[in-house]
Amino acid sequence: MRSRFIAGVSILLILSMVIMAGCSNSSAGNDGKVTIDFWYTWGGDEAEEMKKLIKEYNDSQDEVFVKGLSQGDVQKQMTSIVGGNPPDLASHPDENKIATWAERGAITPLDEFIEKDKYDMEDFLPAARAAVQYEEKTYALPIVMNTWMLYYNKDLLEEAGLDGPPETVQELEEYNEKLSVVKDGRIERLGIWPAGNPYMWMNAFGGQLWDAEKKEVAVLEPGFKNTMELNKRMWDMFGSDAIDRMASAEGQYDSAQNSFFTGKYAMSFDGEWLATFIKRYAPNFNYGIAPMPYDANNPETKNSGFINVGTLYIPKGASHPEEAWDFLSWLTEKEQMVKFAASLGNLPTRTSAVDDPIFDDVPEYDTFMNYVVNGNMQSVPSVPFLEEFLQEVWTVQDEIMRDKVSVDEGLQKIKDKIQPIADEKNQ
């Protein structure tokens, strides 16, 4: 027994020495600079662009060294925070987790840093700024922004005798019917994918997921219900079996085999980065871009749209929050932001960056940026149960499409599940 005890103590001592050595290596070294760990979710070519910026920062000063790691598993970030060993800085691909993680105490509010440095939050576009705030506190900074518009194949529309893109959702349904091709029960071409993202499309009907004033789930209201009914009508034109067969033959999205590029879809509701993909993989593709169609019965919804933002945050328990803030604030300055956004084919989140000449060579940049600046942009609600909410919306939409529940039953199911969670959070 004693020999086992001694062996166990020896192992613990060795582990302690390893851990201490690891901590020492993470906090110093590199010519005396404080080392901060930065986990970012960008990968591939996008990660290479982030590496360039990290090197630029490291070379620009002699106090902080950023050690970057491309790490796409967001849940691993939460595990590290709960385990007391988080990175000093991390990114999320969107704002969906901000309120939830803030409520759980996993994210450090940035307001003290912002106030101390007189960091200019007013330069951020209002929708982007709101996306990273929860209960009047700022929990992250938005480095890039995405929005979605209607891409359309000009040649296919011309063949179908259609003069320009649809302006209303009512016209969209008509276009979908004229542009879709079905032979022997198999879909050869879809006008547009028939089960679009409901919390993006709902803006066309003036819908919302959450009524902030009433603190109520709003999916039973006409705006969201109309969205789900639109998706259901377009789905029922073909049926689940035919759509599933079509989906199984999808070409790789970021390649020349993208189903929109190859004519399997006549229209695609997609983000600004798709124009960069077209330039890269299908340079001769004849396409156009138009705003999200709006509800003809609600003309005030014209030029409504959806955005999300790529976010950067300091985890709770970070070893070097001051140094992390120094890098974070530098990375989101206009000069660095425009380099990163342009390299990704994304949109900047600062007003001062909108007209920067670096975007002159970014395909369709002006089209998307003008849409954001001049339109009525919405994002997902900043509520601490958003992840459960969105997952339930997707689950129920699939059930509605496949006739497992009716639209009314499905929407009621969403409210019955999410409202009690919201009530508990709001107590």
TrEMBL record:
Sorted alphabetically, the keyword list is: Signal, Sugar transport, Transport
Q: Which InterPro entries match?
A: SBP (IPR006059)
Q: Which CDD domains match?
A: PBP2_UgpB
Q: Name one Pfam family in it.
A: SBP_bac_1
Q: What is the name listed in the Swiss-Prot or TrEMBL entry for this protein?
A: Multiple sugar transport system substrate-binding protein
Q: Which family does it belong to?
A: Belongs to the bacterial solute-binding protein 1 family.
Q: Where is the signal peptide?
A: 1-21
